[in-house]
TrEMBL record:
Protein name: Phosphodiesterase
Binding positions (AMP): H151, N152, S153, T154, H155, D192, D317, Q369
Organism, scientific name: Mandrillus leucophaeus (Drill)
Active site: H151 (proton donor)
The PDEase domain, residue ranges: 75-411
Organism placement in taxonomy: Eukaryota, Metazoa, Chordata, Craniata, Vertebrata
PROSITE patterns: PDEASE_I_1 (PS00126), PDEASE_I_2 (PS51845)
Keyword field: cAMP, Hydrolase, Metal-binding
Cofactor details (free text): Binds 2 divalent metal cations per subunit. Site 1 may preferentially bind zinc ions, while site 2 has a preference for magnesium and/or manganese ions.
Gene this protein is translated from: PDE8B
EC number: 3.1.4.-
Chain residues that bind Zn(2+) 1: H155, H191, D192, D317
Pathway the protein contributes to: Purine metabolism; 3',5'-cyclic AMP degradation; AMP from 3',5'-cyclic AMP: step 1/1
Length: 421
């Protein structure tokens, strides 16, 4: 297969701030290794020390694994039957992303992405070939770290799946333009690219290079968007934006950036409150026939479209508690393990322990899930459900909450009762 992208010089465009030398060397190393192995292989990440800008990080090496070689499809019609059969169900909320992860040898993003983007006519909108889109997905997926328990390309594929599901809901579809849909799908795909498996607080406390670069503000989210665009535009073979005009590109780019930055949790409650006050309350007043002069959600209100897109990707990003119970449990185990690893690392390095509850020796996973749902999920999904109408998700949320409460009442700290394992 031909070269997908070239680790050329830092882009001088003001759209892309210059990368530091060590970050550039890191990405060049990754790219060169990826190219030397072929686009179907996974890059070797020796560690996150170069990425994070300090030598003591001891994250598990993302050593290349000898997966059985799985040829990348030329088009969506060329995927192996076992994958194609799974993807037949991708429009269902109960779609099992972990089965796709297994059958694609930890490359679910390319396959799900091609199917979803085809369904939404993304190639036609961007005027790019499916070959270019496939190359882009491969580049993006290669820059997710498969050694991360949670923040890997399976999570990206899961968020893409949720975003596509939300875009199919009648009120969401009626409120957004096709550019919004395309931007949302791209944002979901890239929203955690090159995530090191550590939180923003960890990177800031460690004085990492990324934290210095982004002034301790939305460090990872800024990095995800910047890297995504740098990887995309470096080579025409994977530049999905190469055939759209400058103004179109700028609008699309801004929408993608805005959505990815909205996944940063320090402004979580601000985003939810804006959505409730600007979307839900006026909508309820309109439905009730109120005389209130409030703007309903719709295509004539760009400010409302922005709020809808932010809320959509935020919900997609943390939709795990609203998945079927078996999927919810698997995600809870994965995020807990990633947080345990961070706490282990903080203790080894003498850094502040950001999340002391996630100590693998003392943590109650049910309690952590109950707290997460109570603090972040319930109000946000109540608001999103009021707009998008998602009864099945809300039922899953109630069932899953009951599962965690039952375990907690029984003083069980694990994912399931021992008899259920």
């Amino acid at each position: 297969m031909g070269r997908c992208f070239c680790p050329g010089p830092v882009l001088p465009s003001p759209q892309f701030g210059p990368m530091s030398k060590s970050l550039l060397l890191y990405h060049c190393h990754t790219i060169l290794d990826f190219l030397s192995r072929g686009c179907c292989e996974e890059p070797v990440h020796d560690s996150t020390s170069i990425l994070c800008g300090f030598g003591e990080v001891e994250q598990e090496n993302n050593v290349h694994q000898s997966h059985s070689h799985l040829a990348m499809p030329i088009t969506i019609n060329d995927v192996p039957p076992c994958i194609s059969q799974l993807l037949d169900n991708e429009e269902s909320w109960d779609f099992n992303i972990f089965e796709l992860e297994a059958v694609t040898h930890k490359r679910p993003l390319v396959y799900l992405g091609l199917k979803v983007f085809s369904r939404f006519g993304v190639c036609e909108f961007l005027n790019c070939s499916e070959t270019t889109l496939r190359a882009w997905f491969q580049v993006i997926e290669a820059n997710y770290h498969s050694s991360n328990a949670y923040h890997n390309s399976t999570h990206a594929a899961d968020v893409l799946h949720a975003t596509a599901f939300f875009l199919g809901k009648e009120r969401v579809k009626g409120s957004l333009d096709q550019l919004d849909e395309v931007a949302a799908l791209i944002a979901a795909t890239v929203h955690d690219v090159d995530h090191p498996g550590r939180t923003n607080s960890f990177l800031c406390n460690a004085g990492s290079e990324l934290a210095v670069l982004y002034n301790d503000t939305a460090v990872l989210e800024s990095h995800h968007t910047a890297l995504a665009f740098q990887l995309t535009v470096k080579d025409t073979k994977c530049n999905i934006f190469k055939n759209i005009d400058r103004n179109h590109y700028r609008t699309l780019r801004q929408a993608i950036i805005d959505m990815v930055l909205a996944t940063e949790m320090t402004k979580h409650f601000e985003h939810v409150n804006k959505f409730v006050n600007s979307i839900n309350k006026p909508m309820a007043a309109e439905i009730e026939g109120s005389d209130c002069e409030c703007n309903p959600a719709g295509k004539n209100f760009p400010e409302n479209q922005i709020l809808i897109k932010r809320m959509m990707i935020k919900c997609a990003d943390v939709a795990n508690p609203c998945r079927p119970l078996d999927l919810c449990i698997e995600w809870a185990g994965r995020i807990s393990e990633e947080y345990f690893a961070q706490t282990d690392e903080e203790k080894r390095q003498g850094l502040p322990v950001v999340m002391p509850v996630f100590d693998r020796n003392t943590c109650s996973i049910p309690k952590s899930q109950i707290s997460f749902i109570d603090y972040f999920i319930t109000d946000m999904f109540d608001a999103w459900d009021a707009f998008a109408h998602l009864p099945a998700l809300m039922q899953h949320l109630a069932d899953n909450y009951k599962h965690w409460k039952t375990l907690d009442d029984l003083k069980c700290k694990s994912l399931r009762l021992p008899s259920d394992s």
